[in-house]
Amino acid sequence: MKQRIISFHYTLKDSQGQTLDSSSNREPLTFLEGSGQIIPGLETRLGQLKVGDKQKLSVKAKDAYGMPDAAMIMEIPRQQLPKEKVSVGDRFRTSNHPTPLTVTKVTPTHVTLDANHPLAGMDLTFDVEVTGMREATADELAGAHQCCGNHASGCCGEKKEDHGHGCCEH
Questions:
Q1: Percentage helix, strand, coil, to 5, in the chain?
Q2: Is there a contact between 98 and 109 (Cβ–Cβ < 8 Å)?
Q3: pLDDT value of position 1
Q4: What value, to the nearest 5°, has the Cα angle with vertex 150 and ends 156 and 14?
C-alpha cells in the first residue's frame, strides 16, 4: 500500500470532555502516513476515513502516549535546575529528554521531575475532519523526518512549539 499525506482539523479532548488542543483558526495538521508522526491510534483511525469525513475518534491511552513509566520520574537536587524558583507544573526541556520535564513536587532541597509525556495514561477523544488525502511524492518519502508538516503554526520550525499532538517529539 502506498503511503499518503493526510491533512485534518481536530479538537482534542480528555476523558472528561475538556478541550486540550485544537487546530481551529490554524492550518490543518498534515502528516505522512506510516512514519510515526502522530499517535498510532489516531493514525490508524484516520487512515480508514476519506476526505470530507467528520468523526469523533476515541483513542485509548496505550494507543496514544502510552502509560506513565515510573522510571521516567526522578528526584534531583534543586541546584541542578536552570532557575532558582520552581513550582509544581513548571516544565523544562533538556537535551537528554525530548519530552518536556514537568515539576511534580518541590521540597526545600529537591525537585521531582516527570519525563513522561503530559498526556501519558490518558484516554483521548478527537473530533476530526479530514481535509486532504493524497499519495506521498518520492521527495516526501525520501525526506520523511518526523515532522507534522504544520510549519504555519511553528511546528518543527524556529519556534519549536509543542502542540500536544506528538509532533516534534522525537
A1: 15, 35, 50
A2: no
A3: 65
A4: 95
Quote the pTM value: 0.74
Integer Cα distance of 138 and 169 in angstroms: 24
Give 44-74 pLDDT, tens digit per residue. 999 999 999 999 999 999 999 999 999 999 9
Distance CA 162, CA 61 (A): 19
pLDDT in tens, 130-163: 999 999 999 888 875 444 443 333 333 333 344 4
pLDDT at 164 over 50: no
Class of domain 4-64+121-153: alpha beta
Q: What mean pLDDT value characterizes the chain?
A: 84
Contacts 24+ apart (CB under 8 A), 117-121: 117/65, 117/66, 117/169, 118/164, 119/20, 119/64, 119/65, 119/164, 120/61, 120/65, 120/66, 120/67, 120/68, 120/69, 121/61, 121/65, 121/66, 121/67, 121/68
CB atoms under 10 Å from CB of 54, counted, come to: 11
What is 70-114's CATH number, 2.40.30.10, 2.70.20.10, 2.40.50.100, 2.40.10.330? 2.40.10.330
